[in-house]
Amino acid sequence: MPVIFGIFLDAFNMLSQILQGLVIVMVVLSLLFSFNVISGSNTFLLNVYQGINRLLDPILNPIRKLLPDTGGMDFSPLVLLFTLELIRRALIRYAMTYL
Question: Is the pTM of this model over 0.70?
């Protein structure tokens, strides 16, 4: 059982790190587009941003439905990062305590 849990924990850590990286890239690109640091005519970065958005929207949309409307600010990426870290720490603490 501890071996299977270790494999699960490693897989969750890798998936969590990939999601965290994608969220950070999405937020940075969103800010750069919003403040016109990057032109909307830059098709490569626009395609990267849209691709990451398509990947993360199924995860972020349920979070957006739970959060109150804050106008132009979207706090769902922050909630996702916080939740992933909270789950990761809980799993590590469980492994250290019971395994």
Answer: yes
